[in-house]
Amino acid sequence: MSQRNRGHAKLEARLGYKFADPELLDKALTHSSAIAPAKRVLQSYQRLEFLGDRVLGLVVADMIYRRFPKATEGDLSRSLNALVRKETCAAIAREIDLGDEIVLGDSEARTGGADKDAILGDAIEAVLGAVYIDGGLGPAFAIIERLFGEHMGQSGSERADAKTTLQEWAQGRGLEPPVYTQVERRGPDHAPEFTISVKLGEYAPLTATGPNKKIAEHKAAEAFLVREKVWEGAAS
Predict the structure, then answer these.
(1) N or C: at which end does the chain have fewer Cβ atoms within 10 angstroms?
(2) Secondary structure of 186-206 in the HEC alphabet?
(3) Are residues 51 and 122 in the same domain?
(4) Which residues are catalytic?
């Protein structure tokens, strides 16, 4: 069985929140496969995931209610479902490299559990539940608005993954796939900032920054799509 990781300074930096009770975060990152069956309820993230799911739903509902004042109830429901579904949660978990922090049992680790949508989605909900217990709704709201807001389209529907959209757009024009290059890395190890450039064919390159390479690449791709009027609105 994998040993628990104590101390998650890099993840706290990516979240923008430091836990007063670090053991809450430790529990939120512990999959049931890493715990003996008799202790799973108390020592794995199962209960925190239940709570975080409800916190996420409340905050996202509030976000879309305020952001889209003319949307119908049906539109709001579809937007909510798109943003809180497991695939979206897993995509956001990957953006903050959450899989590297999850503690798994040996069998689950061998089968790639740290990159499974179900586990990543549950784990980020558990982390949000832990933030809510540790600091209240305010910090949880801020984290959810920042992370999930980037996946909200201008019409209230979920926006497709920027890197995938850009690659498909390039393929449709007979171009080679976009190339992402790290231009700069600044800041301390626990709170780095990466600047990534995206280059596609003869188009002028664009750069964007983020707390890890994946987020910076996403932002660069989104900025490119907005500039070329594939997507509407300002890039996140």
Answers:
(1) N
(2) ECCCCCCEEEEEEECCCCCCE
(3) yes
(4) 53, 125
